Amino acid sequence: MEVRCYVDSCTYWGNNICQAEAIEVNSEDAEKTPQRSDHTMCNTFKPRE
Ligand code: SF4
């Protein structure tokens, strides 16, 4: 699956396509059920060095 991503500060970012083999996405707050996309987050994010 192709994942479009605009987080260019991530190690796995490449021309708006995620280059990771797989990603993990979690709820922003484990206590709440996400209702909007900004209630979710990519756990695979790793800052560029
Ligand atoms: S790992 Fe997550 S934040 Fe990083 S490029 Fe892929 S989708 Fe974007």
Biggest sheet details: 2 strands, antiparallel
Count helical runs: 0
Instruction: Tell me the helix content.
Output: under 10%
Helix and strand pattern: EEEE
From the structure above, extract its key features.
49 residues; mainly beta; two-stranded antiparallel ribbon; binds iron/sulfur cluster
Short description:
With 49 residues, the protein is mainly β. The chain has strands at 13-14, 17-18, 25-27, 40-42. The protein has one domain.
Itemize the secondary structure elements and their pairings:
Blueprint: E1 13-14, E2 17-18, E3 25-27, E4 40-42
Outline the structure in words.
This protein has 49 residues and is mainly β. The protein has one domain (1-49). The chain is 0% helix and 20% strand. The chain contains no helices and four strands. It has strands at residues 13-14, 17-18, 25-27, 40-42. A hairpin with a 2-residue loop joins β1 and β2. The model has no long low-confidence stretch (mean pLDDT 97). The structure holds iron/sulfur cluster. Iron/sulfur cluster (SF4) binds next to loops.
